[in-house]
Design brief:
This protein is of the alpha/beta class. It has one domain: P-loop containing nucleotide triphosphate hydrolases (Rossmann fold). A hairpin with a 3-residue loop joins β3 and β4. It is globular and about 45 Å long. Bound molecules: guanosine-5'-triphosphate and magnesium ion. Guanosine-5'-triphosphate binds next to α1. It holds the Pfam family MMR_HSR1. Its cofactor is Mg(2+). It comes from Brevibacillus fulvus.
């Protein structure tokens, strides 16, 4: 998709701050440091609209980005980062849980996993949970540039098996460095916002 406008809208800490214009929403979930904010920037052709950091735990709220006045990307706080205080984690947990369960505008969950590693317990729990509540997921294996292309399939197989990827869900390789997977991911997203 040609991105003609992309703007940061709000860092929301709860439902009262979510947009009210009814545009479809795409949620970006995954463990801390997996590359959620970097992926958003690459999808939008922006260098630093979503803040990224080599220090995990950068994103701590639900950050809304409006694209072409047509849809929102919702950047999530990363899970699985030990150094975040327990009280803060519980607070995010509740916010994320109620967003995923109740948010009518949510059309698709983009779940990021690092292509180099087998999914973590948290990755599996998040995926299972999305399936239980009937959400459609596209699994994005990030940091594709970090391993040779010839080894992608072998790594995808491990991810597919460990997550027990459902037949209705798809998976693709992405790199925020090279743009690998960008067009394919836009294709998937457009399919779900047009229905
Ligand atoms: P939190 O906000 O902490 O949950 O992290 P995040 O998932 O938003 O990760 P972020 O986009 O901030 O990226 C974390 C680190 O990984 C940064 O140093 C990025 O430059 C790096 N990174 C992200 N995507 C890629 C990628 O595709 N390839 C490479 N080589 N590095 C990447
Ligand atoms: Mg982030």
């Amino acid at each position: 998709m040609k991105v003609t406008s992309a703007e940061f809208v709000i860092s929301a800490v709860g439902p009262k701050q979510y947009p009210t214009d009814g545009l479809p929403e795409i949620a970006l979930v995954g463990r801390s440091n997996v590359g959620k904010s970097s992926l958003i920037n690459k999808m939008l052709n922006r260098k630093a609209l979503a803040r990224t950091s080599s220090r995990p735990g950068k994103t701590q709220t639900l950050n809304y980005f409006r694209i072409n006045h047509r849809l929102y990307f919702v950047d999530f706080p990363g899970y699985g980062y030990a150094k975040v205080a327990k009280s803060v984690k519980q607070q995010w947990g509740k916010m994320i849980e109620s967003y995923l369960t109740d948010r009518k505008e949510l059309r698709l969950v983009v779940q990021l996993v690092d292509i180099r590693h087998a999914p973590s317990k948290d990755d599996i729990a998040m995926y299972d949970w999305c399936k239980q509540i009937g959400l459609t997921t596209v699994v994005v294996a990030t940091k594709g540039d970090k391993i040779a292309r010839g080894r992608w399939q072998q790594h995808l197989k491990v991810i597919r098996e460990q997550l027990q990827l459902r037949e209705t869900d798809s998976m693709l390789v992405f790199s925020s460095e090279t743009g690998q997977g960008r067009d394919e991911l836009w294709g998937t997203i457009l399919k779900y916002i047009n229905t």
